[in-house]
Amino acid sequence: MDFEFLTDVTGQPLARCDMESEYFGDWLSHDIGSDKALITSLLHNLDRLLGRQIPDYEFVGKIYHLTIADEEVDLFLNNNDIADSQFEDEQPDGPVAGCGLVELKHLLASWQAFIA
To answer: Which family does it belong to (predicted)?
Structure first.
């Protein structure tokens, strides 16, 4: 997954990911943001998954929910009325993006370093 981090005109951090992973950028920007405690918690749970201490994990955010099972990560839109205007015309029934567990850990660790 290719990604870049930048700040908007108000100084808020923004993540942009490649086309097939663009929803992960939106997830980082809007559901995770600069919540350092949340990022630390997510990274801790990813380590627990990688160490086979837990079999699966789910995180529900404001816009998206993340599910991880068998080292596969799926990102879904929540079933609510909140939608980023960039994606409002797309309402898929299944996951909107996916990646591997190690890939997600790298993305989150990079985001953590960017907002530090």
So the answer is: Belongs to the UPF0231 family.
The strand pairing partners of 15, in sequence order, are 5
The answer to whether residue 94 scores a pLDDT higher than 80 is: no
Q: How far is CA 105 from CA 24, 39, 42, 79, 108, in A?
A: 12, 10, 9, 25, 5
Query: What mean pLDDT do residues 64-86 have?
Result: 78
Across all residues in the chain, what is the average pLDDT?
A: 88
| CA angle, residues 20, 65, 100, in degrees to nearest 5 | 45
Which are the contacts of 47, defined by CB distance < 8 A and separation ≥ 6? Answer: 105
Domain ranges in the chain are 3-115
